[in-house]
Amino acid sequence: MNTATKLGSYVLGLAVVFGGALGVGKVVGPVGSPPAEDHAAMAVPVASPAHGDEHGAQPAENDTPGGLQVSENGYTLNPLTTTLKPGEPTDFRFSVTGPDNKAVTDYQVEHDKKLHLIVASRDLGTFRHVHPEMAPDGVWSVKLTLPSAGAYRVFADFAPTGGSALTLGADLVATGGYRPEALPKQSRTAKVDGYTVSLDGELTPGQSSKLTLKVSRDGKPVTDLQPYLGAYGHLVALRARDLAYLHVHPDGEPGDGKTVAGPEIVFYAEVPSTGDYRLFLDFQHEGKVRTADFTLGAGERPAIPEATPTPTPTSDGHADDGHGH
Predict the structure, then answer these.
(1) Of 67, 90, 127, 209, whose CB is crowded by the most CB atoms within 10 A?
(2) Pairwise CA distance, residues 187 & 281, whole Å
(3) CA quadruple 205, 206, 210, 211: dihedral sign
């Protein structure tokens, strides 16, 4: 965009699939034009126990991927804070209302937390995975600092007691002059705080694809990753254009006698369409959580056919095909 716009107002196998919050499913089918806000047209996710865990398998009747809706199954995400000033810590407050239109106060604990909050800029250059605290009245709050002005999406990832896991999304704005950045280029290596995370494998739409992440520091493999929220790694993936969301965790648990603490984290990804995806891997080592991010393309984009000249009539009434005949 050439003109600035003024705005006011986040081991072992995992299965990566769309439509599942903190869990596993399966999606197939093409994706057309980017959907309008809070709507999408994708195939129905189907729970599968092949890899990873099943906490967030979406109900079969729901054909919308996670994070694209502000309301689902009678539950609604209600942001009480909609604008922030970039660079200034602000209490981001929100609630989740249930089918009875009252604030939900009873949640299941999933991976050590009752609710996971993901914040990502619309250009997918900024990512935050934070954990708000809930007041007795059901209002959640967390201190949030957004680095720059622009449009953001927040994702509330939770499971109400007695209900299915859900991911609800809403928009958030950091005020000020805004110039969106291009999507980060496709990458196989991420560097963060002296660590290098390499990624091997391909994303193939409609097929289970093995991806291997390897964590190293100073050229040496890291074999003592620490548990973070009950796992050695957490992965969030967002599809470019519409920010469809998924959140999965490794199979197995630290201390189970079979789950290794690195350096490799292997997962199996089944993506529904060609296009670009942003992957954010959280891992903990030496008491600090770090995030490695990647941009991957799934499948080959179709070649654009060459335009065929349209015959135009000549003065003698014959069509000119553009080749002088």
Answers:
(1) 67
(2) 14
(3) positive
CB-based contact 169:77 (threshold 8 Å): yes
Whether 41 and 63 have beta carbons less than 8 Å apart is answered as: yes
Q: Which two tokens stand for residue 100?
A: 């009875």
Which residues face 155 on adjacent strands? 118, 169
Q: Which two tokens stand for residue 293?
A: 């991010």
- Token pair, residue 226, equals 């620490």
Cα 235 to its chain centre, rounded Å, is 8
Nearest to 79 by CA among 121, 141, 163, 135: 141
CA 59 to chain CA centroid, Å, is: 19
What does the pLDDT look like over 125-141, one tens digit per residue?
999 999 999 999 999 99
Nearest alpha carbon to residue 48 among 22, 17, 25, 14 = 25
CA pair distance 293, 305, nearest whole angstrom: 34
The pairing of strands 264-269 and 15-16 is parallel
Q: How do residues 130-173 score in pLDDT, each as one tens digit?
A: 999 999 999 999 999 999 999 999 999 999 999 999 999 999 99
* pTM across the whole model: 0.74
Number of continuous H segments (helices) and E segments (strands) in the chain: 0, 24
Helix H, strand E, coil C: the string for 99-153 is CCCCECCCECCECCECEEEEEEECCCCCEEEECCEECCCCEEEEEECCCCCEEEE
